[in-house]
Amino acid sequence: MSNLAAKKFGPQTMELKKESPETSYQIKAEVARGKYAVIKRCMDKKTKKNMMAKLIKYDSDTEKLAIQEFEIMKDLKNDKLLTARDGFHVRKYVIIMMDGVEAKNVLEFLGEKPRANEEDVAFVMRQTLDALKYLHGLKIVHLDVRPANILVKKDYTLKLIDYGCARRIVNDTGDLVDAIGVTEFSAPELLNMDPVCWAADMWSIGVLMYIMLSATLPFTSEDEDEITAAVTAVDYDMPADKFGKATDEAKNLVKKCLVRVPEKRPTAVQVLEGDWLSNNNSQRRKTTDIPSSKFKELNQALQDADKEEAVVASCTLRTFEEQEYESPDEDEE
After folding, report:
1. Which of 25, 84, 244, 247 could join 240 in a cystine, given CB atoms 3.0 to 4.6 angstroms apart?
2. Could you tell me which residues come within 8 angstroms of residue 155 by beta carbon, excluding any fewer than 6 positions away?
3. Res 51 pLDDT > 80
4. Which residue numbers delimit the Protein kinase domain (predicted)?
């Protein structure tokens, strides 16, 4: 690794430290909470740099998975992904230190536009596909590509975040994995517990694109089993009142991604080099119209669903020596 890259992304080799993170960092207020982890603000005591800490609670069954997330993150050297800057392995928690990201998720980004069109969708898709191209080149599948994990910064750069479901794939034909993301965005082979490869992420790209073109979900129900059945049967439609103004190239790309056989889906590279993202289609993409106000409603519904799944465990940390200490109060700034 060059000196410039090492400075930008951190040292090439990094191991989890078995000591209290509060030796080196001031842990601050909680900013987000998910199924298995809590995100808190923190500050490097030495450099005074503001960062984020991801506190992943584990038990005897999930300890290896928590460590695996750190191992994946420390190898990521790409501007569209988050890199682990430091890490700690204490009793019951793996804590990953990373750069803070002040950004909005993709639905918030689209929902704030007076008018959205396919050029906005292409902007998001191009950067998301660039991130997946990099991951797939490392034989890593993300397995949780969805609006909440795609952040758009003020400078209009994008970050694909959250690698809790990410896995390294050894076989080109796919591996069995022990991760399932959100059902509405998961590929049929993932829900069926069949071997998974890069193509599972491309299914999620199809779902993501469907959402951004129509502000609706392709697979939705109050019943989780019904969603699973619809996904595995590839049972969806593209109603004219939602997709009537979408270009044929955009609709065809969604259909190519949402197919049952993984090998028939396009790769990230093929989509990036395909007709829909061609510069020749830029003007046509700008003439389309997407009801941006609907994105706010959909984003709120998805956030409410996420909150129901959020962890309820307290964030009391213990040192490797099992001497208990308390993390700072939730309202500390």
Report:
1. 244
2. none
3. yes
4. 25-277
Per the annotation, the verdict on 162 as an active-site residue is: no
Three-state secondary-structure class, residue 289: coil
Q: Tell me which architecture the domain covering 103-309 has in CATH.
A: Orthogonal Bundle (1.10)
Q: Among residues 130, 144, 162, 201, which one is catalytic?
A: 144
pLDDT surpasses 80 at 327 = no
Per-residue model confidence as pLDDT tens digits over 91-140:
899 999 999 988 999 999 999 998 899 999 999 999 999 999 999 999 99
Neighbours of 45 (CB within 10 A): 12
Both structure tokens of 183? 């059902």
253 has pLDDT over 80: yes
Per DSSP, the three-state class of 147 is helix
> Residue 273's Cα: distance from chain center in Å?
23
Residue length, the chain? 333
Q: Of the CATH numbers 3.40.50.740, 3.30.200.20, 3.40.50.300, 3.40.1280.10, which one belongs to the domain with range 21-99?
A: 3.30.200.20
Give span(s): CATH 3.30.200.20, the chain.
21-99
Contact yes or no for 167/179 (Cβ under 8 A): yes
Phi-psi region of 322 (alpha: psi -120 to 50; beta: other; left: phi over 0): left
Q: Global pTM?
A: 0.88
Contact assessment for residue 180 and residue 232, using Cβ atoms and an 8 Å cutoff = no
The pLDDT of residue 279 is above 80: yes
Contacts of 165 (CB under 8 A, 6+ apart): 142, 143, 144, 179, 180, 181
